[in-house]
Structure formats: C-alpha cells, structure tokens
Amino acid sequence: MARHIDRYLQPLLDEDRFDFYKAVCDFSDAEIGAPILHWEREHILIPDSAIRKMGELGLFGLTVREQYGGQGGTHLDLILMGLALGYHAQSAAITPGAASSLGTKPLQLFGRDDQKQAHLPDLAAGKRMFVFGLSEPGRGSDAANPEVTATRVEGGWKIKGEKCWSTNARWASHIVVHALTDPGGRPGHRSTCFIVPMDATGVYYQEMEGKEVWLQSSTGSVAFDDVFVPSDAILGEENEGFKVMVTTLNGGRLFIAGLSMASLAFMLDKCRGYVQERVQFDDKPVGRFQRVQDVLLDMDIALHQGVTWLIQLVKEYDAGTMQRESAAKCKIECSRRASDLATLAMEICGGVACLDEFGLIRHFRDLFVCRVGEGSNFALKSMSTRPLVPEIADILE
Fold it and tell me: Does residue 91 contact residue 216 with C-beta atoms inside 8 Å?
C-alpha cells in the first residue's frame, strides 16, 4: 500500500525535494523496514552496516555546506529524511537525525572556522559523530543550570560530572558538553559548551540499560572525571552555552514533530489495510463500523494538519523567520495527537496490535519519547504560554 502521507506532502514540496523524499522512502523500505523485526527480536542496535549505507546516501551531511563536504541542503531536507525513515522506526530516523540536528548543528551555528574545517567533512560523511550533552541525572527541564562543571585551569578547563540520555553515544567521536562555568552569573549566562573527544582521558561511556523505547537507538550515559580540555575546545562564547543549546533545540523539536507524523503515517496505513481485510460479523470487514471509521478519519485529519503545519514552520525556520515558541507548539501538538491516536489505533486492531510483527506497538512505545524528548511537553507549554500573557510572563512557572 502506498504511503497516504504522500498526498499531503507532494503539494507542499518542489519536484526535486519530493523526489529526494521518495528516494529515502525506498531506502527505508529496503534497509529499515525489512530487517527491523530481526533487529528488535535480537536486541540489535542499528548495525554499523546500516549507518555506513546512510552515510553513503549522504544522510549525515544533508545540511552541511558543500565546502565542508556536505549536501548543502536545508532543515527541510532533514525533516523529509525523518519522515521517510521514521515511518518504519523512529530509532532508525533519530540516528542520522540527532547526529545532524543535535550533533552537527551547534558546530554549524556557533563553531569557529578551524573547528568546522576539523570536523564537518567527517561528520558529513558519517565517519564521525557528535553527541549532544545536555540532560543530566539531576537536570532535565532545568537545562539552564547544569550540574556538570568546568573549572578553569592552566591552559584550559577541567570538566567533571555526568550526562545521560545522550542519543548516539555508542557511535560518537565527540560530545558537546554543556557545563557550568560561572555559578554566580545571571541566569542563562553561566554555562559554556565544550567539544570533548570521547576517547579523552577521564571520559567514560556506558549504554543505558532497561530502555523500552527507541530500541535500535544508542542512548548512553557519559561521565567526566576531571577531563582536561584546552581553551580552544569552547564552542561559541564563554558563559553563553545555554544560547548554543537552546538555539540548537528549536530545529530538534521540529524533527521530533516530524517523527510523530512519521509514526502516525505508518499507523494510519496499517489500520486502513487491516480494517478492510479483517472480517467479522456476517463476513463483512470491520471497517464498515462507524466507530472504526471515526478513528481512521481522526488519524487522517491529524496527519494532514500536522504535516501541513510542520512543513510551513520548517520553511520559516530555514528562512530565519520562525518564532521561537512555534517549534515548541508544533512539537507539543504533533506528539500529543499522534500518541493519543496510537491508543485508538491499537484498539481498533485488537490483539494483533500487540504483536511485534504487526508494527503498531513499536510506534505506540516510541511516541512517548516524542512527548518528552527535546523538552517535555509540560515544560514547553510553560515556555510557549509566555507570549500570550506578557504582563505576567515573569511570574509564570
């Protein structure tokens, strides 16, 4: 069955962009859709061979300028990749997605030319990967006040503490560490970002165990035991690390919204097929029942609305005209609608929806990540409300 989402995407894209999207869909069907069940049952993370093929297709360098070996594309290309790969498994899409929107992006936005020359060519080729070091065991939504510290020493800094929930940690060559550098500084201006090699003395990585979402994605804990980095390891300006992180997250939130729509697209297609084939009561398909049709229509409406809104915002993001809260609102609504509808999709399919080979349970689980990743929906609601009531914005929690 053709992907129903295509009828909403195609009018929003030029021919070249839609052709690119379809090419990644073909790759996704062959390289992700075919082996994903085996990977899940054998508890295999995305294999190196699949990552290598993604690199050969240019998926890690979509937004990197051609002078650094990339494709010279925009954030729209990245979102289209996420829609194409995430259709079968969000964990497959987030691997190149996080590598680009969270790993490479801060370097593109805030890196010095020598830093870009040193890293971007290998990042674009998929031969190197940066991981985003923001979340901590004691810091989630309160990201402006990291517990990881960087203390000035002769010739550089020493970093101490732990980052967690770091996507792609297993494959990372470097981690962008958000660390407290000026405890007495004003809010939002007390931290600094550093580019830290994963093989530096005192850096310890461990894959986080027991995770039941994004099963094929690497999610690691990275500890720093007085790790020395030279002063030129700073990314951006000293004590302006929060700006680096927040600016990067806006693009990441749009990517998460795209993953939500990718899962919804898969669920709608799966349910459309099932309710026309499943026969019950007088040997007629269950799709004839109005309650079943209600669920299908709600999924279709949410998909149409979400994709249209998302593509419009991504175009604004690429043009530099998107309002900061817009990405948060899109991520909130797309993830909320898709995850709520996932429950109904499971219900109209019944027991078969619980089987891994049917595919719905994978998206049912992974959509939870979309509600809490790149900022939890609860925290983002508080941020997004401030422009609505500016007179009391300073006292809003």
Answer: yes
Alpha carbon dihedral 107, 113, 115, 117, in 10-degree steps, equals 110
Q: Identify the residue with better confidence: 393 or 115.
A: 115
Q: How far, rounded to the nearest angstrom, does the alpha carbon of residue 245 sit from its chain's CA centroid?
A: 14
Q: How far apart are CA 365 and CA 215, in angstroms?
A: 10
Q: Is 0.85 surpassed by the pTM of this model?
A: yes
Cα separations in angstroms, 378 against 212, 233, 329: 22, 34, 11
Q: What is the rounded radius of gyration, in angstroms, for the C-alpha atoms of the chain?
A: 21
- Return the SS3 of 126: coil
Taking the C-alpha atoms of residue 219 and residue 243, their distance in angstroms, rounded to an integer, is 24
- Dihedral sign computed on CA atoms, order 7, 84, 299, 39: positive
Instruction: With a cut of 80, say whether residue 353 has pLDDT above it.
Output: yes
Looking at domain 243-395, which of 1.20.140.10, 3.40.50.2000, 3.30.300.130, 1.10.1040.10 is its CATH number?
A: 1.20.140.10
CATH 2.30.30.40 fits 6-128, yes or no: no
**pLDDT attached to residue 165:** 93
CA distance 380 to 333: 11
So what's the pLDDT on residue 141? Answer: 67
Asked if 226 and 148 count as a contact pair (C-beta separation under 8 A), the reply is: no
User: Rounded mean pLDDT of 130-134?
Assistant: 93
Structure token pair of residue 37: 């069940």
pLDDT band at 324 (very low <50, low <70, confident <90, very high): confident
Mean pLDDT, residues 1-21 taken together: 95
The predicted pLDDT at position 394 comes to 67
131-238 in CATH: which number?
2.40.110.10
Assign 280 a pLDDT band (cuts: 50, 70, 90): confident
Q: Characterise 126 by phi-psi region: left (phi > 0), alpha (psi -120 to 50), beta (else).
A: left
Q: Residues 189, 241: contact at Cβ < 8 Å?
A: no
Rounded to whole angstroms, the Cα distance separating 184 from 203 reads: 27
Distances (CA, A) of 217 to 39, 57, 168, 274, 341: 11, 19, 7, 29, 24
